[in-house]
Automatic annotation (TrEMBL):
Domain of life, source organism: Bacteria
UniProt-listed InterPro entries: ABC_MlaD, Mce/MlaD, MlaD_Phospholipid_Transporter
A Pfam family the protein falls into: MlaD
Descriptive protein name: Phospholipid/cholesterol/gamma-HCH transport system substrate-binding protein
NCBIfam families associated with the record: OM_asym_MlaD
UniProt GO molecular function: phospholipid binding; phospholipid transporter activity
PANTHER family: INTERMEMBRANE PHOSPHOLIPID TRANSPORT SYSTEM BINDING PROTEIN MLAD, INTERMEMBRANE PHOSPHOLIPID TRANSPORT SYSTEM BINDING PROTEIN MLAD-RELATED
UniProt domain Mce/MlaD: residue ranges: 38-115
Length: 152
């Protein structure tokens, strides 16, 4: 009887450990974000290279949301990014700027929002008009090489 109690105790302890690891992995991956306290914004970029769904959205270095969808706009032939922003960040002016930035030199891509100066604020379903596309290192090197060849 004592061995059976010990085995059940060890089993419960292992189960608690596995559940704790599962919870930790969900928090790290960002899958557990409750979308009821967010609102959607849209931004159109000429180049979305490297940006992925679930990338973070930041303002002044603070994470305020995530990217929920990336698709091609068939009318303007640009990339449309759907952003989910926390409802308590309802202070974004209509002239705010969205940029695709890189964490470090070759790190992950994320969307950074710079605040504008208008008094009107963005709401559910609004579009950020002023955007800055992703910087692609290969294009930059190609332009540099092309300019150095043209000078000679």
């Amino acid at each position: 009887m004592r061995i059976r109690t010990l085995e059940i105790g060890v089993g419960l302890f292992l189960l608690a450990g596995v559940l704790a690891l599962l919870l930790l992995s969900l928090r790290v991956s960002g899958l557990n974000v409750d979308s009821t306290d967010t609102y959607k914004l849209y931004a159109y970029f000429d180049n979305i290279a490297g940006l992925s769904v679930r990338s973070k959205v930041t303002m002044a270095g603070v994470t305020i949301g995530k990217v929920t969808a990336i698709d091609l706009d068939r009318e303007s032939y640009t990339g449309r990014v759907t952003l989910e922003v926390q409802k308590d960040v309802d202070i974004l002016p209509t002239d705010s700027t969205a940029s695709i930035l890189t964490a470090g030199l070759l790190g992950e891509k994320y969307v950074g929002i710079s605040v504008g100066g208008e008094e009107e604020t963005l709401g559910e379903g609004d579009t950020i008009r002023d955007t800055q596309s992703s910087l692609v290192l290969e294009e930059l090197i190609g332009k540099f090489l092309l300019n150095s060849v043209n000078k000679e």
